[in-house]
Amino acid sequence: MIIFYWIFAMFLLVIITLLTYRRFVQQAVLKRSVPRHSPHGISTVKTVTIGGIEQAVLIQAHDSSKPVLLLLHGGPGMPAPGVSFRGVDYAYATTTFELMKHYVLVFWDQRGTGRSFHTDIPSDTMNLEQFVSDANELVDHLRNRFHQEKIYLAGLSWGTVIGLTLASRYPEKFHAYAAMAQIVNWSESDQICYDWNLHQAKEKGNRKATSELVDMGCPPYRDVKTWLTLRKWNFMQGAFVYEDEHIKAPILKQYPKTLLSSPDYSIRDVLRIFTKTKNSYTDQMVLDFLKIDFAESVPVVSIPVYFFHGRHDHAVPGLSTKRYYDKLIAPKGKHLVWLENSAHMFYPNDARIVERCLIQMSSITQDVAQNHEENSNLVM
């Protein structure tokens, strides 16, 4: 009995020590997130009612008068980057510390994710059109809050589905659109992913992966279970992260650390990320994925477009993105940047390249707008 109490006391001491250390780290992150050298800086997490439910938004900037940049996270169900990235520089798609000097940077935990998770969200609202509607509401909220007619928009992976849809439907609301791992045709991407995974499994002698992939057959998939099985093997076989003898990206290890050290996430919030992500997927969502073919639905984008893609991305194959980019009609300009050391999640040095390009995006579009205004005045 004494041994039992001793073990329990030691266990309790360890828990208290870990929670105390977590609190210390959270305070350090919070302190680091406060913009310095500017009376107009902002670092805050706000709750906004969007689509009838409360959803969380992180806003960070050295100067709140700068243009707004909204970055839509991937998933669905994986808020990376999201609200938990307050005070974090490396945010998978881009780094942020320099970016915040040029933009009001906004991260959003989408419906059913992170701080925007609620047990009473109707499952029938977990569909593509609802996510697009939520994002459009948030865009209007940001335009009103910061008194800006237009904002900048960016998306990562799943976020590019929402982002490109918004950019094509409401070009009057955006200066430009940036896509990190743009999804073009989900069914085509799934087929390319399936072929790659089956090849990898056979080449490495992975019997379990080979068996599951053969049993599930080729895409398209119309149910959540099969759709997630392909994602599982994508993850297990390295489709998301590229490494070689020279590149050792600490990407996957950083995500749990970021979540746990977030001053805005409770332990329950963190656990939900890993246990409730499946709630973001419904059979209707999977059927919505099958309808995505931007080559057909969005052949023209009337605002400047920037594509960033990892050369080794096997989760969202770059072949589809390149084909789309080549055919895309973009009167205001289009740009494609290949990130040579990255897969689906961008290697930190490549993420810094994205950051520099996003900063240039602001400068270029603002100059174009100014020249247009000056030319218009001359004509008048």
From TrEMBL:
Q: Which UniProt keywords apply?
A: Hydrolase, Membrane, Plasmid, Transmembrane, Transmembrane helix
Residue ranges of domain AB hydrolase-1 in the record: 67-347
Which InterPro entries does this chain map to?
AB_hydrolase, AB_hydrolase_1, AB_hydrolase_fold
Give the stretches traversing the membrane: 6-24
The molecular function GO annotations come to: hydrolase activity
Q: State whether keyword Transmembrane helix applies.
A: yes
Give the domain of life. Answer: Bacteria
The record ties this protein, via PANTHER family, to: AB HYDROLASE-1 DOMAIN-CONTAINING PROTEIN (PTHR43433:SF5), HYDROLASE, ALPHA/BETA FOLD FAMILY PROTEIN (PTHR43433)
Protein name in the entry: Alpha/beta hydrolase
Origin species, per record, is Alicyclobacillus dauci
